[in-house]
Amino acid sequence: MKTPATDYTRDPAAFSGPGPVMAIGGAEDKLKEKDILTAFWQLAGGRKAKIVVIPTASSLEDAGERYKAIFLGMGAKRADVIFLNDREDANQSASVTPIKGATGIFLTGGNQMRLAAVVAGTKVQQAVLDRHAAGAVVAGTSAGASVLSAHMVAYGSGGPVPKLRMAQLAAGFGLLNGVVIDQHFRERDSFGRLMTLVATSPSLLGIGVDEDTCALVWPDGIMDVLGRHSVTIVDGSRITSDVHRVKGHAEIAISNAIVHIVTPGRRFDTRNRTMLWPKPPRPQG
User: Fold this and answer.
1) How far apart are alpha carbons 66 and 202 in whole angstroms?
2) Is 122 within 8 Å of 91 (Cβ atoms)?
3) Is 229 tagged catalytic?
4) Which tens digit of pLDDT belongs to each residue from 93-133?
5) Out of 74-83, 135-144, 151-160, which region has the weakest mean confidence (pLDDT)?
6) List 184, 190, 229, 241, catalytic entry
7) Per CATH, which fold does 17-270 belong to?
8) Is the pLDDT at 77 greater than 70, yes or no?
9) pLDDT, tens digit, for every residue of 172-192?
10) For residues 263 and 11, which has the higher predicted lDDT (pLDDT)?
């Protein structure tokens, strides 16, 4: 089931302070309806949008320009690409200036470790955090989604069964706290990896986002799912496991993990860790 971008009903203007965050699972539609990218453009202000694209994670030279063309084609007032080859670039005033007026910031896919290694702890990262705090929407696709959280999946392997050393965490940008985001989730068979991450860090809420799917998290922690597939949530607040006893790459025994599958058009409360089911209609008469 594919859900149009216009299916989300919350008004960004109703919130003061931080803007929404969009974690996109990668391989989002860029050619046809472009629902997820259209949602980002709308949240950034539509025809008044001033968008900054940061393609640092990508090894493709035209990655940033491709997104720039898409957003300008939608009617954005402005779209800039910031090229950051190293940390020196990320500390230059010329790199920070476009971000200061941005209403939307888009992080492309690629290698999240490159994105974190080049940008984390620099003036560019601080500028992104400042604009988000002032209300700008920040979106990341694939690697760009992973880095949105304070705890980031640095690397790992796929498979349905959780195993020790299946994944490694690193520090992300910290736009979303208390969660860990895994992308290309269903396509790369990452359920075991997400379970391992939650077993080793039970306080974190695991969020696995499928391709062409977006977890849109509002400032109050309510998450809307947009796009074609689903978002898998793993809640470890009641979990028990033997992760502290197994060695090497052995399989992990896990009990009482709470798993939610959030489909397009559904909502999830990431703070209270509950599905928000729509209220049934009142009986007539």
Assistant:
1) 39
2) yes
3) no
4) 999 999 999 999 999 999 999 999 999 999 999 999 999 99
5) 151-160
6) 184
7) Rossmann fold (3.40.50)
8) yes
9) 999 999 999 999 999 999 999
10) 263
Backbone φ and ψ for 223, nearest 5 degrees, come out as -110, 125
Residue carrying structure tokens 């955090």: 129
Domain boundaries, the chain: 17-270
Residue 243 in tokens: 């992760």
Which of the following is catalytic: 132, 211, 230, 241?
Answer: 211
The single residue of 28, 95, 132, 142 carrying the catalytic annotation is: 142
Annotation says 184 is catalytic: yes
List own/partner pairs for 5-11 with CB under 8 A and 24 or more apart.
5/35, 5/36, 5/38, 5/39, 5/42, 5/226, 6/39, 6/42, 7/226, 7/264, 7/265, 8/39, 8/216, 8/224, 8/226, 10/218, 10/222, 10/224
pLDDT tens digits, one per residue of 154-168: 988 999 999 999 989
211 a catalytic residue:
yes
